[in-house]
Amino acid sequence: MHDYSEILHKGQIHSLGEWEKITNIKYATLRERLRHGWSVEDALTKPAKPRRGPRTHGMSDRREYRIWKSIKERCHGPRSNTRRYARYGGRGIAVCKQWRSSFEAFILDVGRAPSLNHSLGRIKNDGDYTAANCRWETPSEQANNRRTSVIIRYRRKSRTIAEWSRHLGVPYSRFRAQLLRHGGPTGRALKKVIDERRVGWK
User: Fold this and answer.
1) Domain identity same for 131 and 68
2) Residue 53 located in a structural domain
3) Out of 28, 29, 52, 132, which residue is the most buried by the measure of CB atoms under 10 Å away?
4) Residues 97 and 125 in one domain
5) What is the residue range of 104's domain?
6) Are 160 and 150 contacting, i.e. CB atoms less than 8 angstroms apart?
């Protein structure tokens, strides 16, 4: 997945969303041009061709379209309409402006789901729905993302459970069980695990 957060043109660096405002060319059009190998100069300067009559993306019956509507509802819909609002919009998680206003921009960024077994996941669970933070994931990948997102702070170091297990050379499942035995994923529990195993600080 390409990252267009910084695009240099004539000595100016802006995100694709900012270039949209500067050039008056839609975000989805700019992104499609760059993805198809256009030069930055052409992508930002050539005017978009006017449409001849109404045109839609033709994917209203696709699973990706339903997913797009779902993430907008859970983040920006009326609170009474979804129980999941508290877990998303209620926590400050948002859908980026480009996706919120355009399904075409969304599908250009993430593409079609590889299979029916894939769903849209966020790399950082506390992050927004953006091109840089989203990808299609299998159930096992999503579960792994959730389990490794818990942060433990110890001796001014902040790492996920998986990162601590690798740092200390302890298999993940065993390390997690040891933390749970000492009260859960906290700095105090981590210290007890280290003391028990007599693992030297690196």
Assistant:
1) yes
2) no
3) 28
4) yes
5) 63-137
6) yes
- Cα separation, 80 vs 87, whole angstroms: 13
CA-to-CA separations, 85 to 95, 126, 194, in angstroms, rounded: 13, 14, 39
Number of domains in the chain: 3
Alpha-carbon gap, residue 70 to 82, rounded angstroms: 10
Three-state DSSP class for residue 156: coil
**Domain assignment present for 83:** yes
The reported pLDDT for the residue numbered 99 is 93
Instruction: Read off the pLDDT of residues 27-50 as tens digits, 9 standing for 90 and up.
Output: 888 888 888 778 888 888 887 765
**Is the residue at 144 inside a domain?**
no
Report the pLDDT value the prediction gives residue 108, as an integer from 0 to 100: 85
**What does the radius of gyration of the chain's CA atoms come to, in whole angstroms?**
22
Reading the block at residue 192, the tokens are: 């007890």
**Average pLDDT, rounded, for the chain:** 81
Instruction: Classify the C-alpha dihedral 161-125-133-68 as positive or negative.
Output: positive
Question: For the segment 54-70, what is each residue's pLDDT rounded down to a tens digit?
Answer: 445 667 788 999 999 99
